[in-house]
Amino acid sequence: MTALRNDLIYLVVFAVAVLAMPIWLAPFGAAYPDLMQKFAIYGIFAIGFNILFGMTGYLSFGHAAFLGVGSYAAVWSFKLLSMNVIPAIALAVLVSGLFAAAIGYISLRRSGIYFSILTLAFAQMSYNLAYSVFTPITNGETGLQLALNDPRVIDRALFADAPGIPRPNLFGIELGGYEAFYLCAVILILCFFVAMRIDRSPFGMMLKAIKSNQTRMAYTGFNTRPYTLSAFIISGIYAGIAGGLLAVTDPLAGAERMQWTASGEVVLMTILGGVGTLVGPVIGAVVIKYFENIFSAFHMAKLEDIFSFLPDGLESFVVSIVSPFVGEGWHLTLGIMFMLIVVFLPGGLMEGARRIRARFGGGRGTGSKAHSSNPAPAE
Amino acid sequence: MTNAVLHVADVHKSFGGLHALSDIDLQVMEGTTHAIIGPNGAGKSTLLNVCIGRIPPDSGAVVFDGKVITGKRPHEINQMGIVRVFQTPEIFPDLTLLQNVMVPAFAKRDGAFTLNAFRGADRETEIRDEAEHWLADVGLAGYKDTLAASLSRGDKRRLELAMGLIQHPRLLLLDEPTAGMSRHDTNSTIDLLKKIKERGMTKVIIEHDMHVVFSLADRVTVLAQGRIIADGTPEEVRGSAVVQEAYLGGTHR
Lengths: 379, 253
Prior knowledge:
The complex is a heterodimer.
Chain A: H1 2-19, H2 21-24, H3 33-56, H4 64-80, H5 85-107, H6 112-131, H7 135-138, E1 144-145, H8 153-158, E2 169-170, E3 173-174, H9 177-200, H10 202-212, H11 214-219, H12 224-249, E4 252-253, H13 260-273, H14 280-293, H15 300-306, H16 312-322, H17 330-344, H18 348-359
Antiparallel strand pairs in A: 1-4, 2-3
Helix pairs in contact in A: 1-9, 3-9, 3-12, 3-13, 3-14, 4-5, 4-12, 5-6, 5-12, 9-10, 9-12, 10-12, 13-14
Chain B: E1 4-15, E2 18-29, E3 33-37, H1 44-51, E4 59-64, E5 67-68, H2 74-80, E6 82-85, H3 97-110, H4 125-137, H5 153-165, E7 171-175, H6 183-198, E8 202-206, H7 210-216, E9 219-224, E10 227-232, H8 234-239, H9 241-248
Parallel strand pairs in B: 3-8, 3-9, 6-7, 7-8
Antiparallel strand pairs in B: 1-2, 1-4, 4-5, 9-10
């Protein structure tokens, strides 16, 4: 079973790369917990999105709704039950799963662009309702926050009240920066493992067959709807876990998480990294979050500093050319990069890695260690 | 006397003003190879589409194994044991040849839906071995890891044949299985189909190639303009004046 051993190596390499983020991200200026948490969380979101989009070919434009629902569920768990993250994540899984089942049941009656529009409509509906009808649950524009007088029934039954608003914990371990990152990292690795198992299973094979030729599946004796619905629910749960973890790292849930731009972002992550690959979506998530947080923080003074080795006239010239692409203009860089990738590397960064490997000997089909090379284009 | 596996009872179907099928009454006997021939547009493919639930008939019914199957969904009809091989190859272009043949085997073993998401597909040695066996039978053994999209049209047909055969159907519907194949490939397909016949599989075959029809068929039904104009043994049909006219006289009326 060499395939099995390759998968094990793949998983171990992935796990090491994720856990060692604080080390290898340091030269890129990204090794601080807040950002690494985001890498891991959006990695989970994108892996789950890929289970639907990459395997079945159904392009959802409303996945941020599940992210938002997961956040609300987790914050409610903090408020009502306990500050422990286990019930919070469990509730996020449950609620986002049910929500995905309902939306998927209706949306999956159509395919192609109609499916995408239906999911988009549902997500926008959720987003707008969060500001209106559902304000008792979502607390509207203020966002759902923790308060001193929250019931927290389990915590109050077991422990004495500590002063101030408590922080999320894992059986007493308070989840500050690095603890929270490692929690997210471990869950990311678990989620990656599960996605890998699905990818290698007969179920995964059926999903890919549906993507390849759905009509044929019906004449082959498969009822395709339960397959696509299961994939939809699984990916909704992944989004819910990601949303729950966002609430763990910062116990505040707002409806802006459900906006269509957030749904579009996970589509970008997946395509950028490589649709249908396991690690690609994670790479895409890392690259986009890196841009959003690092590139956007560049300003004139820093640019002048970087190009100070150039002669004076040239320096100001280069700076004036480069400056629209950083700081507030980081979207421009991201947009150009996205266009270049879609045009020249339709398989995303993973395809780039595969081509490089094919050119320099080797040429093994299954990608394994493209991970460490990923932030290179961001520099 | 053998009994009818498939009974198409009095089926009508029209598209707008065109009578694609009228008064079709047809019985396919257990273990036989039943050929349906006729000029282009005679309604042969429509008839198969009615049988597999792709097109609902306007009236009449299709009875399979004593059960009415009209109105059932395509996957239910497949699960009952009717498998169709299409005229334009319907395969999974993004999967490997081996996976293409494994997928229908899973449908046969696990039914229309199973959430078998945690067992590795490469541990399914039984299904893989069987898929390899059928790939070898259709002459594609050497290509099991190539993507199906890269196959030639004739090879896609052979692949689809393997996909149908691995399900061990009670009734196999073949829509021009040798169209686009070389003479050599046609002959090896005929040999394969003869071999299957020895195992007692019932087949309905639509074919233009008379060589194929007369090498395989026990019974021949001739369709023209949506009606059955002749039905009998190959020899009877070959001698029939009506059939000669339908083929040689072209479409009249």
